[in-house]
Amino acid sequence: MLEAIAFYLLAGVAVLSAFAVVAARNPVHSVLFLILTFFNAAGLFVLLGAEFLAMLLIVVYVGAVAVLFLFVVMMLDVDFVELKQGFLKYMPLGGLVGAFLLGELILVTSAVRGSGLYTDSPAGLPDGVTNAERIGRVLYTDYLLLFQLAGLVLFVAMIGAIVLTLRRRDGVKRQDIHKQVGRTRKQGVESKDVLPGQGLG
Amino acid sequence: MEAELVSRLANDLVWIRPELLLAGFALAATLVGAWLGDRVGGLLAGLCAVGLVIAAFFAWQMRPAEPQLVFGGALSIDGFSGYAKAVIALAAAATLLLGADHFARRNERRFEFPILIALSAVGMFVMVSANDLITLYVGLELQSLAAYVLAAFRRDDARSSEAGLKYFVLGALASGLLLYGASLIYGFTGSVRFDVIAASVADGGLGVMFGLVFLICGLAFKMSAAPFHMWTPDVYEGAPTPVTAFFAAAPKLAAVALLARVLYGPFADLEDQWRQVIMALAGISLLVGAFIALAQTNIKRLMAYSSIHNMGFALMALAAGTEKGASAALIYMTIYLPTTIGAFAGILAMRRDCKDVETIEDLSGLAQRKPWLAMLLTVIFFSVAGIPPLAGFFGKLVTFQAALDAGLWPLAVVAALATVISAAYYLNIIKVMWVNPPAPAFQSSGPTIAMTAGLATLLIFPVLVVGFGWVEQAALLAATSSFP
Description:
By secondary structure, chain A is mainly alpha-helical. Chain A is built from nine helices and no strands. Chain B has one domain. In chain B, helix 2 runs antiparallel to helix 5 and helix 4 (79-105) packs parallel to helix 15 (323-348). The interface between A and B is medium-sized, with 19 and 34 residues.
């Protein structure tokens, strides 16, 4: 009973906030609704017993992707009124694509249900091991090599980003604490003999 | 439990010494480079070349008679992978030598160059010993990602940036195709492991076949076989020349070896199906490479089409589907690598008034200005055209033998025709060098470029010719010990 309430609450809010993403006039609100959608989807994963996936969804999509969207929306001067002008023009095509996807989803779901491969309850974990632990056990043992190689791929991406974008320019004012602390009175203060009535001008 | 895990890990780590050495070098060099800046670029390049030679030595030593599956079957260390890794590492080291002079004289030496080459080499090592679909993809992506960055390395140059962007976008598309194929294969066979796929591939049906075709398309893109070659000329022309030399050498061998591993390992039972695909790729590559190269005036673009043409030969050998075919592809690539590196060393020596020139006319009358360079280039281009007694002839000979033994005579006829056509443009370069009136002299090239050109030519004639029997034996042993 409680599970059913939780499911309908999470699913309902997810659908409503997904609609609000498209409908909101202010793009910042859209991104915030998107984050709400992600949270609700994560809740649905928890209900299915996939808490690791739920964590990933929050960490990756909310923590990184949505925040990036927010940055882009707030920092770039995108004219959203102009962007929305073609809305009606693209609506029939968009609706068609949506209808196709819905049809395919229904087809796949009913086919899987009919084949008997599908069970109503989520696959139970035998000995009460959480799925984060289960993934962790194989990730750092059986898949250690692939895990490390994926790390190397990211390392190449990092070096690549630096090689292609970092420019060292002259005349940039940087704080050098070593230099600041090493400065003596002699370097900083100069005594001048000022003539009366003339100044240093 | 833990003790067993640790001992297993220790055992596995011993088998990936070459990869560990290069990855360790890359990490340490990044630290040193970030600390000391680009002035250690030359030192790091030298160290990286030494590291690659040591890695080649390690890899050559690790050619067990029986394939060793390590890391839960993710990698297979066998004769085939050991042979391929050794050649790849040496080719990558030669690229570093070419880069040393080129970047130093243009005053654009950067410490990231050897690091990216080393990481790319790790990717290639993983590719050639991949034993499951995930390893295959991760290795390929590691190699490609480093290659995209290297193509755009001269970031202030519009052509270099264009090359990097083009390569990246099309490479991502190819990766997508490959992953789609891999997911289909996984779905229809129930495993990503090559040995498990091999056992269940026969009753996988149409789905596995679709997956295999997509997988082959993705790999064909990486080895720039026609009709997936469109990126090659632009990337070759735009990328800095030492980087182009790198693209034309080591990654090609890695891609050919990976394709051999995929076709001869898990999909050996589908031979009748994939043979048609490989034959089509080989035929189109041979003809496209031969015909379009005739119209090129830029020598880097010409080398791009030449490499497409040469990939056709490697594919023809693979189409045979026999152990002899796999070993012929290995031999062909072993001979092709020093040839192409030598040719690029020659292109790097084309420098006049402090500017690199790269049209064929710039070679006019080279024989009168620089007879030694002209001699070396003549040997190299005669070899790649397949003129006996140079090594290139023997490379072509074994691929023809493999194809004819398997009864692929229509493909062999196409290859013979394409060879004749391709000889026209190779001979044209030689004619321009020896007959045409001399153009202004080139500046003297740096010591490492001259050394690389000399070494490559020595390999083509006479080292690989005299030692051909030995290479043939090693390649055959590699193929027979790895594809039972």
